[in-house]
Sequence to fold (345 residues):
Amino acid sequence: MPIGTDINHAAELLRKGEVVAIPTETVYGLAANAYNEAAVLKIFQAKQRPAFDPLIVHVHSLEQVQEVVSFQRLRRADTYRPTPAETTVTKRTLRGDDDTRKEAEALMAKFWPGPLTLVLPKSDRVPDLVTSGLDTVAVRMPAHPMALELLRSLDFPLAAPSANPFGYVSPTTAQHVADQLGEKIPYILDGGPCTVGVESTIIGWESDAEQWVLYRPGGTPVSEIEAVIGTVGQAKKSVLPASPGTLESHYAPRKPVFIGDVKSLLKEHTGQRTAVIAFTEKHEAWRTEVLSPKGNIAEAARRLFAALRSLDASEANVILAEIFPQEGLGAAINDRLRRASAKRS
Ligand code: AMP
Ligand code: MG
Fold:
């Protein structure tokens, strides 16, 4: 099994254009040189990920952000100079694009390294394959010490989605990666179990709407982001998924999942082998995974994906899940459970 803790070996493989699974604080990622299109293509192949699903670019410094993000492009919309009359009626023309850059920098200063991904205009250095042809790029600085050490030893950033087959539950241990992708990738860098356990929160600047919008709730609570930049809007649903993290069915086990009031769900499924994902207390079910007996929502998030995987591998016929409190990481937990429960077409 190609699992180990050798950061130099991982770096060597990445320099040669290989893919390597790496630990981050959110989930394990499947990484490749973000500037090397052939290497990035291997990520899509290993994951069987559709090319319309863009990757997150991982950086180790604010200088490296400048390589992948083009704050200049925020200015494009701003080349039009409104007349004084127009300026007084439309507030949006008063907002300078420097404001967006400053807000992005304030978010980076406050939350990085950490589970927040920013979607910003991309630079020409980032191949279209990484962004699925979008003119924006998703960027983040991971907080895992091994991921940061690895990134610092390379002279390119790493494009990395979660290290799981497309649509399935994300991996939170090296063994989860090995279980599904072990045969397809040359190395898994083992950094222990992920400490956050759900993917990063993704927000982006939408220049048409002139506002920050949420693409995916995750490891950084939106309320904490809003404390820095004010209201964050909701991303519009579109036919072409600008953010497949927002696909209805995603992060899904193979077994059917139902989310709601577990007592009624258990009644509806009498006679079946029911497995329950619960916050603090056991249910009268065939099996219950209690995520945090003490009621700690961060602990529940950390344990969510391992619990889903273990119930999916069990003899249960059906997985039932409670609705978690919306505070803190609860929003991300409910989002993943809701999408795990969406009917696949
Ligand atoms: P994963 O790393 O597998 O959780 O997937 C990364 C997710 O980031 C994608 O599924 C998208 O939802 C989101 N993403 C990446 N790039 C962009 C972008 N340019 N605009 C909007 N969302 C993005
Ligand atoms: Mg994913």
Remarks:
- Residues 53-54, 56, 119, 131, 134, 136-138, 161-162, 199, 202, 204, 215-216, 242-245 surround adenosine monophosphate (ligand 1) (CB under 6 Å).
- The two ends are 34 Å apart (CA to CA).
- The first helix runs from residue 7 to 15.
- The domain at 3-234 is CATH 3.90.870.10 (DHBP synthase).
